[in-house]
């Protein structure tokens, strides 16, 4: 069978990880890579067979891959994905997808219209714990959802700005909202749905000058439910990035992180063997192994899913450009709400 | 290949690492904030007959190494199994600054070794790019500095690096790493992986032998890609003269009771177990249960 020819654009941290993972998929050949860094292309030329390019336009012109993984700084995602669509290339684009909702929804429409596979890298949608949580919610395990809390912590930024780079400004997709809160927001969309209104947004600078290091906001829904998000990437008490989500419903309460789901049930559930009161599902109870592991099952699963969609083995993509656009709409509303109401 | 120790005390319990529960991890981090509590655990392990320590090159490992250097007479027959690098240090730096500034900072900032100074004189990172293996060696040396003066038996590459490189399918990286560890540290090269059957197949294909492979091994298949049966099979077919297998995550983060876990492990063709425990009773029990 003819292998799917992949191009990877941007060989930073995510590009390097994705290359390794997707290269392990038997039907795939990583044929080309674009990165402006001479360091990266020099090393790659020496050890790998993929052709390297300094920029994506040359890559498109010279090899025209079947599918691309876009791992550049976020501000470049839009022009790259747009060009790819014109050429009929399927695209996986890292989160936060783009830096503007308008561009994001334009790309979502364009890819749908052309029938091209499109996926955004909200990896939590492929995480064993959160997938299980989604299943539990779909089975109405906590009854009607009333309140939720979606939080994310890490010790990513723990020193004052010294360098600039793309992470220093919102225009380029930097800051805790684009880079981290986007995950927490998408997790809410995945598990609960998109909010109808944002209020009470606040942003804090801890170490960064031009972008926020912490953010919180309240999400309101027409149905009456509501919830909050709180994200802080300068919290040194966390050794590694941690997602926490809590959902309160008429039937009980769910608390989850990447390791476990704790469930308080108002009544027992025979199907899941949950008793009345507290129940715990550990990651060791619910994980599903992947055929090749680099950074967590979810990273492998998300890229294999993308390839399965490109090959037509799977029809419905689990994290489309339209999902990416939804997160960006909420992000813009948080910024807008903060501008209008967040300062005293 | 020189046989490795059958039972090795690991270090996850000291550094607030618990794959099952963040609360448990936090409790451990609090308990071991005082480094003397770490030394007590090592003493208990020593009293239980353990003569081998696996330690990741994180910041606190420096003080642990210093303690054992200072008390060398007491622990003269202790064998060391360092693992490099400390991945979170790099992950956070890279997330903050990007890859090239991170390499610059790690390789050159405050690194006054002659190798590093020469490299800066020649043009630093840009020149180093032409010799990626030299860069790998310098990174290993930086991480290994803290273990100086200890009796080093195996130097392990952490799974995040091993498995990342495995995906790239490049023989040279593995070959050069193994050679460098043998020559520079007079130790066995070690690779930690969560893809043991695949790694072993590749090493055989590349004709790289004399390697210690450390991998998750438990009966529920937790952190074992692709699945538990492939692991059992790969271990069964293994020639220990070529690859010694060391099992980690044997309790699957506490999901399997110790007796059951080692009942399974003892039946496998495995040469060694690394385990993490902080309680005196657990350490003694584990030593009794492991019958390789």
Q: Most extensive interface: pair and counts?
A: A-B, 44 and 51 residues
Structural class by helix and strand composition of chain A:
alpha/beta
- Quaternary structure: heterodimer
Indicate the percent of residues in helices of chain A. 25-40%
Report the CATH topology name of the largest domain in chain A.
Dihydrodipicolinate Reductase, domain 2
Identify the CATH architecture of the largest domain in chain A: 2-Layer Sandwich
Series of secondary-structure elements of chain B, N-terminal to C-terminal: EHHEHEHHHHHEHHEHEHEHEH
The number of distinct structural domains of chain A comes to 2
**3D shape of chain A:** globular
Number of helices of chain B: 14
Termini Cα gap of chain B? 18 Å
| Poorly predicted spans of chain B | none
The tally of beta strands of chain B, per DSSP, is: 8
What's the architecture of chain B, going by CATH?
Alpha-Beta Barrel
| Average residue-wise pLDDT of chain B | 91
Strand order of the largest sheet of chain B: 1-8-7-6-5-4-3-2
Q: Into how many domains do the coordinates of chain B divide?
A: 1
Structure explained in plain terms:
- The complex is a heterodimer of chains A (344) and B (292).
- In chain A, α4 runs parallel beside α5, α5 runs antiparallel to α10 (321-341) and α7 crosses α10.
- Chain A is an alpha/beta fold.
- Chain A has ten helices and 14 strands.
- Chain A folds into two domains: 4-123 and 297-317, 3-Layer(aba) Sandwich (Rossmann fold); 124-291 and 327-341, Dihydrodipicolinate Reductase, domain 2, CATH 3.30.360.10.
- The longest helix of chain A is centred in the last third of the chain and has 21 residues, at 321-341.
- Chain A has an eight-stranded mixed beta sheet. Chain A has a six-stranded parallel beta sheet with strand order 3-2-1-4-5-6, sandwiched between helices.
- The N and C termini of chain A lie far apart (63 Å).
- With 292 residues, chain B is of the alpha/beta class.
- In chain B, 49% of the residues lie in helices and 14% in strands.
- Chain B has an eight-stranded parallel beta sheet with strand order 1-8-7-6-5-4-3-2.
- At the A-B interface, α1, α2 and α8 of A face α4, α5 and α9 of B.
């Amino acid at each position: 069978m003819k292998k799917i020819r992949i191009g990877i654009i941007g060989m930073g941290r995510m590009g390097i990880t994705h290359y390794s993972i997707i290269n392990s998929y038997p039907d795939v050949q990583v044929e080309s890579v674009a990165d402006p860094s001479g360091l990266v292309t020099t090393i790659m030329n020496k050890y790998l067979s993929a052709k390297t390019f300094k920029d994506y336009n040359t890559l498109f012109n010279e090899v025209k891959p079947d599918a691309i993984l876009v791992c550049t700084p976020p501000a470049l995602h839009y022009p790259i994905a747009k060009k790819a669509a014109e050429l009929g290339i399927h695209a996986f684009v890292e989160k936060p997808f783009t830096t503007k909702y308008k561009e994001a929804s334009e790309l979502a429409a364009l890819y749908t219209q052309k029938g091209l596979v499109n996926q955004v890298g909200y990896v939590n949608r492929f995480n064993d714990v959160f997938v299980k949580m989604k299943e539990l919610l779909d089975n109405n395990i906590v009854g009607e959802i009333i309140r939720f809390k979606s939080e994310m912590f890490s010790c990513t930024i723990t020193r004052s700005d010294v360098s600039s780079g793309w992470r220093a400004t919102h225009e380029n997709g930097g800051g805790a909202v684009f880079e981290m809160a986007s995950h927490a927001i998408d997790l809410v969309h995945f598990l609960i749905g998109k909010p109808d209104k944002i209020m009470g947004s606040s942003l804090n600078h801890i170490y960064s000058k031009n972008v926020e290091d912490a953010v919180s906001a309240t999400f309101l829904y027409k149905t009456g439910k509501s919830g909050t998000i709180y994200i802080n990437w300068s919290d040194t008490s966390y050794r590694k990035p941690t997602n926490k989500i809590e959902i309160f419903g008429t039937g009980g309460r769910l608390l989850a992180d990447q390791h476990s789901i704790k469930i308080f049930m108002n009544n027992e559930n025979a199907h899941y063997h949950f008793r009345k009161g507290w129940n715990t599902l550990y990651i060791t109870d619910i994980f599903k192994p992947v055929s090749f592991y680099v950074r967590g099952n979810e990273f492998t699963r998300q890229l294999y899913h993308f390839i399965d969609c490109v090959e037509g083995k799977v029809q419905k993509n689990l994290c489309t450009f339209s999902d990416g656009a939804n997160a960006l709409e909420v992000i813009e509303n948080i910024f807008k709400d903060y501008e209008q109401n967040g300062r005293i | 290949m020189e046989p490795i120790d059958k039972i090795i005390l690991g270090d996850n319990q000291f550094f607030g690492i618990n794959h099952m529960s963040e609360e448990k991890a936090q409790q451990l981090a609090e308990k071991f904030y005082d480094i003397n509590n770490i030394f007590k655990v090592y003493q208990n392990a020593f009293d239980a007959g353990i003569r081998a320590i696996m330690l990741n090159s994180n910041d606190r490992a420096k003080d642990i190494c210093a303690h054992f250097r200072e008390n060398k007479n007491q622990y003269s027959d202790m064998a060391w199994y360092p693992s490099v690098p400390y991945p979170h240090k790099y992950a956070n730096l890279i997330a903050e600054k990007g890859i090239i500034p991170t390499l610059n900072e790690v390789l050159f900032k405050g690194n006054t070794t002659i190798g590093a100074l020469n490299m800066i004189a020649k043009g630093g990172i840009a020149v180093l790019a032409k010799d990626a293996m030299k860069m790998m060696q310098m990174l290993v040396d930086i991480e290994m500095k803290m273990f100086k003066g200890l009796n080093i038996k195996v130097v392990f590459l952490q799974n995040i690096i091993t498995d990342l490189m495995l995906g790239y399918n490049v023989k040279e990286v593995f070959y050069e790493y193994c050679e460098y560890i043998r020559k520079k540290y007079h130790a066995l090269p070690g690779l930690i992986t969560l893809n043991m059957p695949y790694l072993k197949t590749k090493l055989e294909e590349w004709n790289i032998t004399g390697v210690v492979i450390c991998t998750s091994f438990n009966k529920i298949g937790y952190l074992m890609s692709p699945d538990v049966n492939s692991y059992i099979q790969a271990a069964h077919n293994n020639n220990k003269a070529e690859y010694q297998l060391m099992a980690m995550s044997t309790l699957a983060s506490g999901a399997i009771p110790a007796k059951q876990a080692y009942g399974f492990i003892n039946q496998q063709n495995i040469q060694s177990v690394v385990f993490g425990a902080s309680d005196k009773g657990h350490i003694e029990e584990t030593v009794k249960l492991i019958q390789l």
